[in-house]
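Ticket #4471: complex job returned nothing on first submit. Input attached below:
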Amino acid sequence: MRDYRTLKNTHWEARLYAVRIGVAVLAVLIMLGGLVWRYYDLQINRHQDFVTQADNNRIHVRAIPPARGLVFDRNGVLLADNRPGFTLSIVIERSENIDKLLAELDQLLDLDEAEIERFNKFAQQRRPYESVPLRDKLSEQEQSILAVNEYRLDGVEISAQLIRHYPLADQLAHVVGYTGKINERELRILNSKQYAGIHTIGKTGLEKYYETDLLGEVGYEHVETNARGRVMRVLERIDPVPGENLHLYLDSRLQEIAMAALGEERGAVVAIETETGGVLALASTPSFDPNLFVTGISHKNYDALVNSPERPLFDRASRGQYPPGSTVKPVFGLAALDSGIISPSYTVYDPGFYQLDNKKHKYRDWKRGGHGSRIDIHKAIEQSCDTFFYTIGFKAGIDRLHDYGELFGFGVTSGIDLPGEARGIMPSKDWKHGVQGVAWYPGDTVNVSIGQGFMLATPIQLAVATSRLATRGLVKSPRLVIANENSELTDDNEAHDNEVIDNKILQIGSKHWQVITDAMVGVVHNVRGTASRAVTGLDYKMAGKTGTAQVVGIKQNEKYDAKKMVKLQLDHALFIAFAPADNPRIAVAVIVENGEHGSSTAAPVARNLIDAYLQFYPPPEVEESG
Amino acid sequence: MAEFDHQLKEYGRVVHSWGTSRLGVRIDWMLLLLLLTLMATGIAILHSASGQQFVYVKRQLVFMAVGLVAMLIVAQVPPRFLERWAFVLYYIGLALLVGVIFFGVGAKGAQRWLDLGFFRFQPSELLKIGVPLMLSAYMGKRLLPPRFKHVMAALLIIITPAVLVGMQPDLGTGLLIFAAGGFVLFLAGLSLRYLSAALVVALTATPLFWFYLLRDYQKLRIITLLDPQSDKLGAGWNIIQATTAIGAGGLTGKGWLSGTQSQLNFLPESHTDFIIAVLSEEFGFVGVMLLLLLYLLIIMRGIFISLRAQSMFGRLAAGSITLTFFFYIFVNLGMVSGILPIVGIPLPMVSYGGTAIVSLLLGFGVLMAISTERKRMGQ
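Support reply: We reran it on our side without changes. The output follows.
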């Protein structure tokens, strides 16, 4: 194919160029059209999507945790407060390589496995851009190490946080309880919105029971951040609402006296203000420092607490179930009087044992040789005559004992505002049949009539019963927190002031009450009273009852010899009391595990407490004259 | 950026030493006016895109001043002189490019610069203007449309530097050189047979290209173009953030200095290759259209100049320079908005960077020289 042209034809070439540039211009216009379409599509058609996307880039919602409600005693002494502490947390989205970051932090701060484990757990549950805590309560040294290295630790945040603190430490560990890190199980149940930015939750005691009130409402902050996550400005803020403060009936001075009175013993003390049902002191020993749990307890400390044979974590006051022993005698005596089985003049001869008809088995009185003849109800309570109660208990029958026992709160939860209260056992025929599938034997009744056998009660139940004895039938659920008309506390147990119980107990005749009260005064003030030697020199009248609960069964004809037994096999010592006897204002129940005799170990504890109470809170007329 | 700066200062010195322009300066006033408007717009956007750090604006102004001076100097050179000596420019450029392979210095894994002791120099820039001029001169002397052997020779002229540059690797510049040469061939009347043959060759060569020539990061760019979500925080980040910024602008934009994507640093390379996203976010669709209009006016002026050129060399050179200018715009706007793979091509006169500005203005200098030739002849 030869080209016929041999010379340049400039005009022809100019036209050729014009055509070609024309095509090019057309192409340019088409391509520009393509660009215009693309930008139109992005900027007009899909504008809204991209606005949202751009806002998602820059606007982040940050939760502002509320300050947890404080806990005060009745005099305004702080029992639980919040203290600022520094927490190291990581915003995972802002770290380029989280594993590398953790490795670096490990080098700097020596992380332990539990911390990393916890971190990973939280990390899975977090919302985007939520910071995940790694270590709390940074020391000053740790803070400065982090400050120096901050530039290479992308995503690390050090934030001031409020950390729960219990100023009275072990004194109130079982009452106030403690908060701790939210665990995996709780995390699943919790409303994550309510707990946004909050890493702890009430685990035990009031902290748990009033969790929803103490918690408060989470606040939110919409912040604008740049690409590196630095907050540029706050766009909107909803302030958090601090949790409700709790004001207790409890007096921390009385609590400390109760704790000190128990000393090294294992035991519990419950003191109730009879008029209100308010709990003045609720002690359980041994105790522990709840502050250990707040930011996560170390394995070593936890193992020590859990494995201790003394069981310091166990709240004996609300969960410990003990045979009430002779402390039930006033209640069963009242039952016998009220149901007309006996009269105040009814007497029994006590040879030192009791035998059911046609049975060989001897139910022994604690006093070898017995209390002698003409034992009436007054003496029987005063001297704690077992034979008398074996007799009238058997006469009354277990179901009657059961019914009256329930009136005084045995076998029913007291309704105290604490989680996990034990119920105790107020046995009946139905109960035994239902639980053990065995018929009730007459001998079972005999045992129950002195508070042994199947019967079990918590120290709180004992205090409640004592309070009802003191007030002659005023039924009040024991309360730790003073209800406040300004706030509605979430109190699930409030419904316990049962009207049926109320009416029945009020029908008990006043002369019957008087008989029992007089006998209980005798326990303390009469020379022959079982507590008279332990409690002396009172300037007020106290009504009380000693009790001894068997820990190990004593075989027939075997003598109980304290010297032969190791401490853990010794009897539990119990004492209940109210005072002043003629106008009771305080009811106390004391139990000392393996304390042997109610009179010698438990009674002085109650006495100290009542002394202090009457001193701190003298009756109005005394105040006026003095 | 520092060596770049340095390089440009030296550039300026060299240009100044040529310095004294004659009286009766020859200027295409229309083109100059359009370019100045574009530059002013560019500075305003750059101010916002660089986070209001005046250092970028200041440097950019220096680059523009240097470029303008260079442009006006080139504008005074008679096109015939350019036509005669274009091959020198080309061969020097080529030689330096080969030099880069042996003596070049690099940055970020690319070997692009020649360290001449007193300044650093990027020979590929020389070829951006050298290739179209050389090729225009070559074609201008031939009978058009070009015959097979001339086409082959032209391809050699184009591909040799384009491949050398592309392998540095500087895909963007390689592409620009290739485009500039290709435009000359097309404008010279390259027959449709060759064009379609080229298309076939290109298509069959694509797999070879993919497996043997493209580097991993280049492949990644193409993959991310097709599916930006495949690597949200990595390679796809740029595209996602850029399209977000563009889309968020809407019709009229968020206002100057108020684009959240750019001001809060979500947009990467916001003051260089991705600057159109800043404009889009802050001035919206209207802003983009006005900028495109300004570009279109410049392109039309360039095409007008080429049509009035006195020689085939003039036509081809002016046409090629104008179309290359469009190529910059198209590729840049296309890649930022996510319809083309990301190659490092800046937005002319708006993106921060001295090299592009000076070399673009040199091209406009050639346009002005061609534009004013006719007037001189008429006198």
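The radius of gyration of chain B is 20 Å. Closing as resolved unless it happens again.
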